[in-house]
Amino acid sequence: MTVTVERGESSPEKLLAPVLSSFWDQPKSWTLDTYLRHEGYEGMRKALAMPPDDVIALVKDAGLRGRGGAGFPTGMKWQFIPQGDGKPHYLVVNADESEPGTCKDIPLLFANPHALIEGMIIACHAIRSEHAFIYLRGEVVPVLRRLHEAVREAYEAGYLGTGDARRRKLGLDGLPDLDITVHAGAGAYICGEETALLDSLEGRRGQPRLRPPFPAVAGLYACPTVVNNVESIASVPAILHKGKEWFRSMGSEKSPGFTLYSLSGHVANPGQYEGPLGITLRQLLDMSGGIRPGHRLKFWTPGGSSTPLLTEEHLDVPLDYEGVGAAGSMLGTKALQCFDETTCVVRAVTRWTEFYAHESCGKCTPCREGTYWLVQLLRDIEAGKGRMEDLEKLADIADNINGKSFCALGDGAASPIFSSLKYFKEEYQQHITGGGCPFDPAKSTVWADDPSSTHLGVNA
Amino acid sequence: MTDVQLGMPQLPAPDYPAEVRARLEADAREVIARYPDSRSALLPLLHLVQSEEGHVTRTGVRFCAEMLGLTTAEVTAVATFYTMYRRGPSGDYQVGVCTNTLCAVMGGDAIFEALQRHLGVGNGETTEDGKITLEHIECNAACDYAPVVMVNWEFFDNQTVDSATRMVDDLRAGRTVEPTRGAPLCTFKETARILAGFPDPRPGAVEAGGSAGPASLVGLRLAKGEAAPGRVVSPRSADYPSDEEAPAHPSSHDAPQRTSASDPHHPSGPVAEEGE
């Protein structure tokens, strides 16, 4: 098994460590049968034989941190749930994966939904919950089908259901009822924010709530609630099955374990790469064929569009929570979107900003108004109608959103603005002085270098 | 009916015919039973009424309100917040082209422009035969398969102008169209029923698409000592028909509103110079 990432190492066999993705190439990988053939539900059996507090302690000691972006320790989240309070406790899995660039939970749930179900059973045991929910974004029907099927199989096998049925089929005493409800969302990026997700799950407009109280105290139906990302929960069974030492043998002291890195954009081999935390983008590119032939990396996001852009100079930044933080960005969702020199950074940032303006829920003024005005300025700059003072205005508006909006969507909207102005101010100026965009968008397309393509020139 | 209501408020929406109502009520009760609090069933119920009529009608809103003990205003407030609920009649197939940054750059903008021209419709509009509603969509969590097109929320990965054009032609001609990941297409109404929480009844639907797509397996293959396959490129060439103009740049399709320069009817728009 891979240990910590060696600098200069480039062999994928040594650098990668498929755990969640280890059997995605097997026939019918999403079925209970296949999962059981690959050590499935072993972790659950161990966990159910342990006192709940010991499970929490184990996950905490393993050092698992949230894979949804913020990196909060998962075990600590579980520990915050008050016990003996007489209220129902809920586990809600955030499967609303919508952050631009992020594409790990959806392939995970498509190929291996039982890892999530098993993790949920363990988490429910730990926090004493008898009802858990999967909030899946609605726009991924193939994944919804497999979740419906996986939950059905889990009921049939007695992993879920009434306490009686579970005791009978699992041969374990003292099991409570456990139900999982699969809930499809309806299209709203903001519902990935945990308190907006809870409002949405309660049948309301998905708008974030004021914190405190935090969900651990007053979450779903004002009851203690844990909200965890898909990958975080799906990583729990392996920790239970193989132990915290095994988990800690990967990654670093503060960022232990394995994770899914999603490589996309102008690269030779986009896709999912599962390995220990702390791998670098250079290592991932070296092993996977690099940037597409004949081009070079211009800018990239370490964890989705809400994490500040990085450039070629950051290729050796360890992709863990501390490493990316020290480079002035965030690990986020490990969505490594790579753009080569054909890409106009103003175009990229304008489009992301249009996204944030479209998805702003409208609850707070800095985000609702700020994203609107950012779009106006950016569109003018991109079209060659901007003025030099607009650049200052952009930074000023972004500063009035960042840290002053109700939830992290606003901070996310400010990230591409700040970071692109930091690294590519000249390119903005070029649009203004040159009266338009100097890039040809046809050159950025995936088919641009395809010799069979008889592409007409596109005027920029 | 005009878009703007003047004078007297509208009469209450008509109810469903009795047998439709009875059938939907049975479904709704099943959905409501899944939640500790009935209001949580509102999003699934809106998907359910959409599966009956293809969009959320006033009758559908009234049905949800009655089932959950809410006002129609409360239901409408929720229905208008989420982009997946349609507010007017639309096509059997919703073709959504991702134009968020990564897909746009990789070719999504070109695909969206080409489909608009080819189908003769704009964003959110439906073809005359009622088959296709074309939309641009936001990131759909498949960036390693860019550019991505979704049809009734099934994945069409690694698209080109040519492959997407052929796909919509096939849909309009009634030919079978299979996604790269997902089940053979069903209609928008049938999709809405799955979203309401009723599993797809078609045999083979869950299996369709295989275990994982090629990009999902790249890292695993490398870790096993196999060679990286190289990017999946559509076998078809992606040229524009020579009699058509290639897409213009920049292309921004979405609200918020136009700026003054592009909107001469409102010269006092957001970025007008003084005295302009």
UniProtKB/TrEMBL annotation, chain A:
InterPro entries: ComplexI_51kDa_subunit, NADH-UbQ_OxRdtase_51kDa_CS, NADH-UbQ_OxRdtase_suF, Nuo51_FMN-bd, Nuo51_FMN-bd_sf, Nuop51_4Fe4S-bd, Nuop51_4Fe4S-bd_sf, Soluble_ligand-bd. It is an enzyme of class 7 (translocase). GO terms for biological process: cellular respiration. PROSITE patterns: COMPLEX1_51K_1 (PS00644), COMPLEX1_51K_2 (PS00645). The keyword Iron-sulfur applies. Belongs to the complex I 51 kDa subunit family. NCBIfam families: nuoF_fam, PRK13596.1. This is NADH-quinone oxidoreductase subunit F. It comes from Streptomyces sparsogenes DSM 40356.
From TrEMBL, chain B:
InterPro entries: NuoE-like (IPR002023), NuoE_dom (IPR042128), NuoE_N (IPR041921), Thioredoxin-like_sf (IPR036249). Belongs to the complex I 24 kDa subunit family. NCBIfam families: nuoE_fam, PRK07539.1-1. It comes from Streptomyces sparsogenes DSM 40356. PANTHER family: NADH DEHYDROGENASE [UBIQUINONE] FLAVOPROTEIN 2, MITOCHONDRIAL, NADH DEHYDROGENASE UBIQUINONE FLAVOPROTEIN 2, MITOCHONDRIAL. It catalyses: a quinone + NADH + 5 H(+)(in) = a quinol + NAD(+) + 4 H(+)(out). This is NADH-quinone oxidoreductase subunit E. The keyword RNA-binding does not apply. Keywords: 2Fe-2S, Iron, Iron-sulfur, Metal-binding, NAD, Oxidoreductase, Translocase. NDH-1 shuttles electrons from NADH, via FMN and iron-sulfur (Fe-S) centers, to quinones in the respiratory chain. The immediate electron acceptor for the enzyme in this species is believed to be menaquinone. Couples the redox reaction to proton translocation (for every two electrons transferred, four hydrogen ions are translocated across the cytoplasmic membrane), and thus conserves the redox energy in a proton gradient. CDD domains: TRX_Fd_NuoE. Residues 225-276 are annotated as: Disordered. Its cofactor is [2Fe-2S] cluster. One of its GO terms (molecular function) is metal ion binding.
